[in-house]
Amino acid sequence: MEKKRFWIVLVIAILVVIIPILGKYLFPGLNKYILHVGTFMCIMTILSVGLHIFFGICGQINFGCNGFYACGGYIAALLMINLNLHYYIALPLAVIGTGIITVFVGLAVLRLRHWVLALGTAAFGFAVFITLRTVGVGFLGGDDGLFTSKLMVFGKKASPSFYYYFILAWTFISILGAYILENSRAGRAMKSIRADEIAAQVTGINIDHYVRMAFLISGMYAGLAGALYAQWNRGVSPDSFTPDIAMFVLVYVVVGGLGKLSGAIIGTFILVLLPELLIPLKEYELLIYAVIFFLVIRFMSKGIVGTVQDLLSRRRLVGMEAADQYSQG
Amino acid sequence: MEKALLLTFIGFGLGSIFGLVGLILVITFNATKVINLAVGEFVMIGALVSAILVKSAHLPLGWSILIIIAGAVVIGIFLNWFLVTPLLDRNVAGIMIIIGTYAGALIVSGSAGALTDFAFMGTPPILPLTSIKLWIFPIVPQYGLCILVTIGVVVAYWYFLNRTHVGWAFKATSINRDMCRLLGISTSRMIAMAFAMSAGIGAIAGLLIGPMSSVNASMGFPVMVNGFIASVLGGMGNPYAAVVGGWVVGILHVIIAGYFAPGYAQLAVFLLLIGILYVRPYGLFGVHED
Prior knowledge:
The complex is a heterodimer of chains A (329) and B (290).
Chain A: H1 2-26, H2 31-57, H3 65-82, H4 87-109, H5 114-135, H6 137-140, E1 152-153, E2 156-157, H7 160-182, H8 185-195, H9 197-202, H10 207-232, H11 243-257, H12 261-278, H13 285-299, H14 303-328
Antiparallel strand pairs in A: 1-2
Helix pairs in contact in A: 2-7, 2-10, 2-11, 2-12, 3-4, 3-5, 3-10, 4-10, 8-10, 11-12, 11-14, 12-14
Chain B: H1 2-32, H2 39-56, H3 61-89, H4 94-116, E1 132-134, E2 137-139, H5 141-163, H6 165-175, H7 177-182, H8 187-209, H9 220-234, H10 239-259, H11 262-279
Antiparallel strand pairs in B: 1-2
C-alpha cells in the first residue's frame, strides 16, 4: 500500500512537471493560459495546505487566511519597492514578517475556540481587506494596489514557465513540509487536540503551545503564497485578497476531504479547474459552480477523497468476503 | 447635537436589522447547532424581489410582502429538507453542513444574479425616508418601523418560546434532541419550523432594510456577516442578546460613517469585535458552557 502510494505521488509529480512541455506541443495556442491556471493552482495549493495544518490537523477553524495571504503579498511588494530589495531576499523576509503578524494576531484570537474563533479570524481577514482598500490609501496604494518591477533571470525577463517551475518548487516544499509535520511528534499532538482537547490535555499535551504553533505555521504558509503571488502577478491589489478567498480556500479543504493532506490538494485542483471549464457558460458560471458544489456536499459528505477511499475499501471488503466464501467452499 | 441624535436613531434602526439577522442565525443555531450562512440570502430575497414585484410588475405592496415571505419560507424549508436534516441524520461534521449552507447561499444569490444581471435596484419604502421632528427628536419613519418591527418580533418570539406548548417543545429540542425524540416530540418538524421562521423573519428584515440603499443580488453576504457579528457579540445561542449586539454594531456603524468616513465603519465593527472577544470570549451576555 505504502509503495503504491509512492508511485501514485511520483506519477502525479512527473505529470505536473512536464505539463508546460506537453502544453507547448499539444495546445500551442493555449500554453500561456495553461501555465497561468497552473501557477494560480500552485499558489492556492500552498494556501490550502497551510489551512490544512491548522484546520485539518489541529482541528481549529480559520476563516481569515486572506488576511495572512495579503500580509505576505504586501510585505514582499513594499520591501521590493521601498527598500529596493531583490525578490529572493524579499520572499523569505515576507514570510518571516507574516509570521510575526501571525503571532500577534494569535495572541488576540487564540483564546477563542470553535465558532467564536472562526468569527475572530474572519474579522481579522475583513479588517485587513478594508485597511488595504480605504485606510492605507497613500502608503499601500488603495484600490490600485502596488506594482512590482520585472524579475530578471540570467539577464532576461522571467518567462511564465519560469514562474510556474519556481512556484511549483515551493509548492512541493510546502506539501513535503506539511507531510513531515503531520507524521512528527508535533503533528501527532495536534491530531490528538483535534480528536479531543480535554483528553489531549490529560495526557500532558500543552494545547496552547501546539495550537499557537499550528497557527503560526499556517500563517507563514499563507504569507509564502502571498509573496509568490505578488511577484508573479507583478503587483498586489486589494481585489486579490477579498474575504471570498478565505472562504474559497476553506471550501477547497473541506470539499477535498477534511483532515487529509491529499484532500486539500485534490480539492484545490478540482475546484480551481472547475470555474475555468465553466467559463463558456458566461453568466451561469457562478450558478453552475454553486450547484455542483452544493451536490458534492450533499452526496459526498466525507469530501472527494474520503468518498473515493470508502468506495475503494468497500470493493476490497467485497473482494475479501468473496475470497472467504471461496475458501470455505 | 441634532446630528448625533439623528445618527443614534438611524443606528438603532440599522442595528435592529442586524439584530434580526442575528436572531434568525441564533434560532437555527439553537435548533441544529449549525450556523446557517444562507440567512443573508433571505434578506436579499426580501429586498430584491420586492423591488422587482412593486417597481416592475406593479403589484400592490401588501400582496408582494405576502408573496415574498411565503417564497422565502419555501426556500428555507427546502434548504432544510434537502441539505441540513439529511446531513444531521448522517452525523456529518458540523463544518460540512455549514459549508453546504454557504453553497446554498451561492445558489440563491447566483440565480438571482443571473436573472437580474446583478443590477442595482431600489426597493420601495414602506414609510417615508425623510427625517421629521418628533418634539426635539429627529426621526426617520422607515427606521422607526425597523425598530418597532424588531421589538415586535422579539416579543412574539419570547411569547412563542415561553407561553405556547409548541414553543416549549421547540426550546427542549435545542437543549437535547435525542431526549425530545424519546418524549415524542418530532424534532425534524421543530428544525423545519426553525428554518421556516428564520426565512420569514429574514425576508421581513430585507423588506425593511432594502429602501435604505440600492440593492443587488450580492448584498446578502455582508448583511449575514454583520448579523453573525451581532449574535457573537451578544453571546452565541441567546436570541435576545443577538438583538442587543445588533444595536451595538448598528450604532457604531452609523456613528463612524457619519463622523469619519463610510469606509471606516466596517473596520471599526471588526476591531470592536476583536476587542470584546478578547475581554469576554463568550460575548457580552454569554456564559461559558463546557
